[in-house]
From TrEMBL, chain A:
Its EC number is 2.4.2.17. This is ATP phosphoribosyltransferase. Residues 54-228 form the ATP phosphoribosyltransferase catalytic domain. It comes from the Bacteria. It catalyses: 1-(5-phospho-beta-D-ribosyl)-ATP + diphosphate = 5-phospho-alpha-D-ribose 1-diphosphate + ATP. It comes from Thalassovita gelatinovora. InterPro entries: ATP_PRibTrfase_cat, ATP_PRibTrfase_HisG.
Automatic annotation (TrEMBL), chain B:
The keyword Cell division does not apply. It holds the Pfam family tRNA-synt_His. This is Histidine--tRNA ligase. L-histidine binds at residues 65-67, 92, 106, 110, 299, 304-305. One of its GO terms (molecular function) is histidine-tRNA ligase activity. Keywords: Ligase. Residues 4-199, 221-347 form the Class II Histidinyl-tRNA synthetase (HisRS)-like catalytic core domain. The keyword Ligase applies. It is an enzyme of class 6 (ligase). InterPro entries: aa-tRNA-synth_II/BPL/LPL, HisRS-like_core, HisRS/HisZ. One of its GO terms (cellular component) is cytoplasm.
Length: 231, 361
């Protein structure tokens, strides 16, 4: 059997991952047609490349179906309970930087901190009869963050895309989403709370703590780690 | 973990004991409409309960407890006074600890009685205590009502009291608010700028979303009023802290709280209730001299307890959750009763844990 390395199957994240490994003399490449999700690893014997959606990599690592995987810290922390018992971060790859933040409309001149958000939520609930809605796809992370900071009278509403548009569309009053430059937020007239940083994320190479490894596979992982100069 | 048949038998024994105290058996469905629970507990319940849905009824919850359906049924159909008992599975989502059960049996005893709430408190405690038998458990007690009375009695604005009252169950935010109201943390620079601005809306950000400009303006007015209010005095903050730190046997705690009440008369009625509850417990044969009292007990559990609170713990098994818990939840009946209300107090036992403890002895 071979050591399975899961990497994002498309876009910039895939290209940057290939580049990062290539700089360390481990050549990752796609094989077959452009549309076929197959790939190969050159430079280390006994490796297999598995192309996956970045969002599925945490689950595959936690199930032990892949040994190594590249994905964002945000996805690992959101999707895996007790994540640190299931995966071990080996290296931060220095790209795919994204902050999970809480943002509110720029016109809310009275709201700059979580303390303000909490007070605004209480007044909003009293006036509108329902809890202030925060649109996000990061339910666990955001709920834990708001609980730790004692924000009450809010509710999370699920938004799997175009989250920044939910406020204008009046399906939410605030958002919790990933941002790298803040451009999309600004374009949608939203501002980040000054203490609203939930998590700083970047593309990271993780090792599964649960995937079974043979003696040969253990050696392969060791060889790879030496080439990558990690761990 | 004891097997399910034994747990069911133990649950039946407990329920029979509660029926012998005059409680009617209560049954409810496992799937509960999610809306009521979500509105009551907020987002927190999603982290604790399993939510499911179908295209017809929308979101449903696997019942996380019996309290809400008992209160709803009582307020719709019940005659007063009333005692109820129930036994059945509850479901709690666990995201951080695999060792905690996500499904377990609860047996409950709930009392709805307008006439003598203090005696009802003592009744629920002693009925549950005797049902637990000789399991050698340590009882912890508290009273959220004392802290609520202390907040009510502060020499400060109604808005500040309301904010503190809202966060009694979130100790960290409660502390942050208290520090700010007492002038112990500086006003954030952005807040100072906002309050100083001639026209806070000068930047002209487009108005989007449901929260209107009038609502924003109303909050700015409230913030200005708050900025002009005198800070909560050091003395009062000290008294609140002194209350929060009370952790003694019940008679000593009572004495300590009476001392504090001399300087903070607003808590006197609540402290008197504690004294009368101690007598009521004593009349029911509870060894009050050895009973622990902790003023901040129950602050981190769900927000519906607003008076007497208690729990029973296995001292030699700190890894186990409480074997029994309970308390007074008058405010919950107010929220669910839409105008109506009834003083209510109750508690639940986990027969599975009781058996596990017996097996370990």
């Amino acid at each position: 059997m071979s050591v399975k390395l899961g990497v994002p199957s498309k876009g910039r994240l895939m290209e940057k991952t290939f580049e990062w490994f290539g700089d360390r003399n481990v050549r990752l490449s796609r094989t077959g047609s452009d549309r076929e999700y197959a790939g190969r690893v050159d430079g280390v014997e006994g490796m297999e490349l598995v192309l996956l959606s970045a969002g599925e990599i945490p689950r595959e690592l936690a199930a032990g179906r892949i040994h190594l995987g590249v994905t964002g810290t945000d996805l690992i922390r959101e999707k895996l309970g007790q994540w640190d018992q299931k995966v071990d971060p080996l290296a931060e790859l220095g790209f795919g930087h994204a902050d999970l933040i809480i943002a509110v409309p720029g016109c809310w001149v009275d709201v700059d901190t979580l303390d303000d958000l909490d007070a605004a939520a209480a007044a909003f609930r009293a006036k509108h009869g329902f809890r202030l809605r925060v649109a996000t796809k990061y339910h666990r992370l955001v709920r834990e963050f708001l609980r730790d900071h004692g924000v009450a009278d809010y509710q999370l509403v699920d938004s799997q895309g175009a989250t920044e548009g939910t406020v204008k569309n009046e399906t939410a009053e605030a958002v919790a989403d990933i941002t790298s430059t803040g451009d999309t937020l600004r374009a949608n007239h939203l501002k980040i709370l000054s203490d609203g940083l939930v998590l700083k994320s970047q593309a990271t190479l993780f090792r599964s703590r649960v995937a079974p490894v043979s003696v040969a596979e253990r050696q392969t992982i060791k060889d790879l780690c030496r080439m990558l100069a990690v761990d | 973990m004891p097997d399910k048949a034994r747990i069911r038998a133990e649950a039946a024994r407990l329920r029979t004991a509660f029926e012998a105290e005059g409680a009617q058996a209560f049954e409810t469905t496992i799937l509960q409409p999610a809306e009521v629970l979500l509105d009551l507990y907020g987002e927190e319940i999603r982290a604790r309960a399993y939510v499911t849905s179908d295209a017809l009824r929308g979101e449903q919850m696997l019942r996380p407890d019996f309290t809400v359906p008992v209160v709803q049924a009582h307020m719709t159909y019940g005659a007063e006074p009333a005692r109820y008992t129930y036994a059945g599975e509850v479901f709690r989502r666990q995201e951080d600890d695999l060792d905690r059960a996500n499904e377990y049996v609860q047996v409950g005893y709930e009392v709805f009685d307008r006439d003598n709430p203090i005696d009802s408190d003592a009744e629920v405690f002693s009925v549950i205590k005797s049902a637990l038998g000789g399991a050698g458990l340590r009882a912890a007690t508290g009273d959220i009502g004392i802290l609520m009375a202390a907040v009510e009695g502060l020499q400060t604005t109604a808005a500040r009291k309301a904010a503190l009252r809202r966060h009694i169950w979130h100790p960290r935010r409660f502390r942050a608010l208290l520090d700010r109201y007492a002038g112990r943390t500086p006003v954030p620079a952005t807040r100072r700028a906002l309050l100083a601005a001639a026209d806070p809306f000068a930047k002209g950000a487009p108005e989007i979303g449901l929260r209107s400009r009038a609502e924003i303006a109303a909050r700015i007015t409230a913030l200005k009023a708050d900025a002009e209010a005198a800070p909560i005095s050091k003395r009062e903050v000290g008294l609140l802290d002194a209350i929060l730190q009370v952790r003694e046997t019940l008679p000593n705690a009572l004495e300590r709280l009476r001392d504090i009440a001399v300087d903070m008369p607003a808590v006197s009625p609540a402290v008197d209730r504690l004294a009368r509850r101690m007598q009521a417990l004593d009349r029911r044969g509870v060894d009050v001299a050895a009973l622990d009292f902790e003023a901040s007990y129950g602050r981190t559990s769900m927000e519906y307890y607003d008076g007497f609170v208690f729990g029973f713990y296995a001292e030699n098994r700190p890894d186990l959750p409480a074997v029994a818990t309970g308390g007074r939840y008058d405010a919950l009946t107010r929220v669910l009763g839409q105008g109506a209300e009834i003083p209510a107090v109750g508690g639940v036992v986990r027969p599975g844990l009781l058996l596990e403890l017996e097996a370990g002895q």
